[in-house]
Amino acid sequence: MVFLSMTEPILKHVCQVFYDSHFGTAIRESDNSFSIIESVHVLAITLLVGTISILDLRMLGLVLCEIPVTRIARAVFPFTWAGFGVMFVSGFLLFWAEAAKNYVNPAFRVKVILLLLVGLNPLLFHTSVYRRVTEWEHEHRSPWRARAAALASLTLWSGVIVAGRAIAYF
């Protein structure tokens, strides 16, 4: 707790610097920049979450059950990473434009926490159950740990999207 209380003024100051910068002000006050960046951000999230959902739903045994998990993963991962890259850059630009407001926004804080958790989920998945994917990838139902990771992924990404939309209302 002491660490958080010590870093909070620093984070608040950094957010204010971003907010007050010429670049942040230009995005925020432009007639079109913010809405274009936000639209790109939403489309990138759609690509990212859409491709992840295909793999998650396959691991839950709900779609494409005849296709091996690794084949689906190889097909969607390039699109997943492209969506992630564009989502990250556009999200950072949106944050830059409204950093001081986002700092105190509870929905933004929830979104950041959910993004950390949603990033941890595939890390744990790929370093554990996915290492043995050749043993179960042809099964209609994946092992319970793979299904749990898929369910966590779908739930966390849904939370990220809801919290992201809620930012505008706080």
From TrEMBL:
Keywords: Membrane, Transmembrane, Transmembrane helix. Residues 38-169 form the DUF6644 domain. The chain crosses the membrane at residues 40-64, 76-96, 108-127, 148-168. InterPro entries: DUF6644 (IPR046586). This is DUF6644 domain-containing protein. It comes from Bryocella elongata.
